[in-house]
Amino acid sequence: MHKTLLIFFALLATHNSLTAQYLKYEWEEDRERYDLGDAFSDEALIYLKYHRQYEYIYEGEERNLFLYQTEHEIMRANNDNALARSNRIYIPMRNAIELVELHARTINKDGTVIEFDKSEIKELEDEETGSGYKIFAIEGAEVGSEIEYYYTKKLDADYFGREFYQFSEPIIKGSFVLLTPSNLQFSFKSYNRLPEIKIDTVESTTVYTMVCENIPALREEEFSSYDGSRQRLEFKLGYNEATGRKLFQWSDATQLLYGRAFLLEKEESKALEKLLGDVKLKGLKTIPEKVAAIEDFIKTSYYLNENAPYEASSIPFILENRIGSKLGLTKLTLNAFKLVGANPSLVLTSDRSEVPFDGEFESYNYLQDYLIYLPEDDSFVAPYNPEFRYGMVPAPFTATEGLFISQVTEDGMAFPKYEIKKIPALPAADNLDKMDVNVTFNEDLTANTVHLKRSFNGYQAAFIKAVYPLIEEARKEELLKSLVKFLAADANITTLELKDKEFHYETWEDPLVIDSEFESPSFIELAGDIILLKVGEMIGPQTEMYQENERMTEVENDFNREYQRNITITLPEGYKVENLDDLNFDEKVIEDGETIFYFKSGYELKGQKLKIYVNEAYEEIYYPKEKFEAFRTVINAAADWNKIVLVMSK
Length: 650
Known about the structure:
By secondary structure, this protein is α+β, with helices and mostly antiparallel strands. It has 11 helices and 36 strands.
């Protein structure tokens, strides 16, 4: 164990024997600058010290549990941008009782120490959320300075925590300390190679520590979950020795959420029955049909307000005010489904683009968002996301685990049951972007007339279907034009039509179809009698991945997807294509006998009609970084095809 921590624990023992007050955190008063030599000189910003401390302590005659939370950072800024980012400090005061301690200073390259003047601190408030901040700038800092601060806040005890120990800047030394009365036992889990927690006991206090050193900077990479890849620590209160019971298990969350979502007050049941009378259910025979109708009615009548008061989880409040909280709209939808004979499960999960749900570590920090599962046809509903309808939920809530809570009845008694299960991602075919492109030449061969029929379903279509009816006409036209001009920014659009402008929940899964025609000179270059046709650009811009550095993170796609492009070119009379074989591509990744990623293209020439197909698909969300090159080859195949220029001569 590190010497400084041993000294710290010795002080703690004395402290505990004398008083119930928290142990005041202190920094090194007269420290020297860190000597890094030439190491890290090419890094804009370095965390020399990154410390987080949590101290739980009973106070007062009633022995209420409070939390003293400390943050201590020392940063070195090696350029002006890094200096601007690091010398302004924000202290979030949400749920804080008071700011107990605040100290800050800068140590310049010549050793000059400039102490922070506490009178310079300012307070800001977010009017929408009511959350406050304290903000201050550390004056006198310059490039090469070491900027140091620490503060301690007092809060009501929070029983769940998460700390990241990896950023876009390296950490020389990171540390974590959690102190708690010995009757309270915390559980921890380290992710992405962060060291494990160590445990010590000093008299009546349990001390949990973690030290990490030389944590490399983590670059943001394409097709990756940045936060999910960072080294982090999850922790929770897991056991109270005084009562002899485990705390905050999935079973406890199940009982709590079952009561909040499944069980209704009498006035809520009456209000729900009245609501159901307004839904057009006549003629609908199956449960999926009825569920889809109810979902659409609720989503077009009541709206999410994340800052709504607690009452917004009550069904009568929602029906009267037309707004609800996440829990409220979920409760309303789930119980309406039950009234038409469905057997829905409540699902809680987290956004995997932030932190993926981990069913093996029972932290309520993972219980961030609600879904509803319908076992009748193995489908999901996103109860407060208006852009989605029955069978489709936000992509970040898929390809991850969730806590499934269902109602079970035995011997006339209803009770909850839970499972940790996977929330599957939609297949690639459900997110299809299809283009039919017909190309002709004008008489002097200086421009093309392009007929583009573009249809797509899935996530992109869902967003447009939700937004389109709500925006003004000028913005509608602008939106549609953007779906055409991605092919040619200089397109002179002569025809632009959105098929089926009235979106109905029964046809929500149908493709969104845009029919257009435009003229553009951008695909053609002339070189004497040679025509250079930039056919590659007719599939639209493509992602290009040239990996100069070793891949750091696992591959993670937002969602599975498929692209089909059919390009028909009427060649000018008397012209032939010299390099048709350039159109043939075939790149794929096969796992366990199944093709999971592919890019394939080819052509057929009949007279002056050149028909080209370009197909591409991604059928897996995750792929290991050790096999990244195979994935990158498929991605880059699209980028390489995008550069193809057909050479046409007489």
